[in-house]
Amino acid sequence: MSIVRAFHITRTGLQLQETNLSIKSQNIAAQGVDGYKRQYLVATDLPYQDFGSVGASTSDAGTVSPTGLQIGLGVQPAGIYRIFTAGDPINTGNPLDFMIEGDGFFEVTLPDGTIAYTRVGALQLDAQNRIVMPKTGYPVVPGITLPANTTSVSVNSLGQISVLIQGQSTEQVVGQFELATFFNPAGLRAIGDSMFLETSASGTGDKGTPGTNRRGSIKQAWREGSNVNAVEEITDLIKIEKIYDMLTKVLKTGDAMLQAANGVGR
Question: What is the pLDDT of residues 31-57, one digit of tens each?
Answer without folding.
Answer: 999 999 999 999 999 998 887 777 677
